[in-house]
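Example S7 (structure tokens).
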């Protein structure tokens, strides 16, 4: 039986976008980019795709099927098809106007319904977090919803026989964790450089069409996906800095006056 791996991948604003090019739409509570700056696949999701493809390399292409799922309001096909050109087998897009402004819980509900519709799976691989909202929550909700073990922040992912073996990144080193399949793992950049699409991979991806579903195809309604954690306000914080020069007869005098000022301001 082939090993069925599902990878979740999010299309995000390119983190290399210069801040000057970003536009804050405080009404819609979102950042916007000029049309000439295309989005990208979330960096940690490219690591997740790479982790899945390394399992495919290790077990043989015929023994592993990699399906990538992405949910969003709109997609740039050349961007979102990149996992196919890297070597993934299938691409499933959940595309719906209502898929903007979901919180992490609702996003996980959509991915959960899509995974159930895809059918049999042995391993779900996610990025450790999205580079736009950095919540690092969706995979945890997803594992809970699927009722499977969740191992986070992997730098190495292997599936010998029918178990998951993960080398996890810790603040002061690494640890090895095992889990029974089916399971979910989140991948970090310590896994290493994702492979570049080959010319052959790009040509194959051009011919492949993604499967596209709307919320209705998953039996979900926008009303059921209202954020439980609504964003009240989205703004760019402004920092007010003042600079004051302390004058004095000499260094000692300046130091004494600085100490007095810091005491007055209750800093010391
Ligand atoms: C206009 C607007 C309004 C918003 N309002 C709210 C709000 O009210 N409350 C709120 O909490 N958030 C809100 N958000 C944030 C947004 O919806 C977040 O994307 C969502 O909360 C998930 O968090 P995250 O993106 O940080 O994902 P993380 O939890 O960091 O995701 C980790 C991993 O999960 C997977 N994943 C995440 N999203 C997807 C996806 N769409 N497709 C496939 N895989 C995915 C990826 O593998 C990713 O690496 C809003 C966003 C917009 C644009």
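Recovered sequence:
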């Amino acid at each position: 039986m082939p090993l069925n791996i599902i990878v979740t991948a999010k299309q995000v604003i390119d983190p290399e976008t210069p801040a000057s090019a970003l536009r804050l739409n405080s009404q819609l509570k979102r950042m916007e980019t000029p049309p000439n700056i295309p989005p990208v696949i979330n960096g940690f999701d490219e690591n997740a795709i790479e982790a899945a493809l390394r399992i495919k390399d290790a077990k043989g292409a015929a023994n592993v099927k990699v399906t990538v799922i992405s949910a969003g309001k709109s997609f740039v096909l050349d961007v979102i098809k990149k996992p196919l050109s890297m070597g993934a087998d299938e691409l499933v897009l959940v595309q719906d106007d209502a898929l903007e402004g979901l919180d992490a819980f609702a996003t996980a509900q959509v991915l959960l319904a899509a995974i159930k519709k895809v059918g049999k799976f042995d391993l779900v691989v996610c990025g450790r977090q999205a580079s736009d909202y950095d919540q690092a929550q969706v995979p945890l909700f997803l594992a809970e919803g699927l009722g499977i073990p969740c191992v986070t922040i992997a730098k190495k992912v292997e599936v010998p026989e029918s178990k998951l073996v993960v080398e996890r990144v810790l603040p002061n080193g690494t640890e090895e964790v095992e889990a029974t399949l089916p399971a979910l793992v989140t991948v970090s950049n310590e896994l290493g450089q994702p492979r570049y699409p080959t010319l052959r991979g790009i040509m194959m991806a051009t011919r492949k069409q993604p499967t596209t579903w709307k919320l209705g195809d998953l039996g979900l309604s926008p009303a059921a996906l209202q954020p439980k954690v609504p964003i009240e306000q989205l703004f760019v914080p402004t920092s007010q800095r003042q600079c004051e020069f302390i004058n004095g007869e000499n260094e000692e005098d300046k130091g004494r006056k600085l100490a007095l000022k810091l005491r007055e301001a209750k800093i010391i």
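Notes on this example. The pocket of flavin-adenine dinucleotide is lined by residues 8-10, 28-30, 42, 44-45, 48, 70-72, 100-104, 107, 111, 126-127, 129-130, 132-139, 227, 229-231 (CB under 6 Å).
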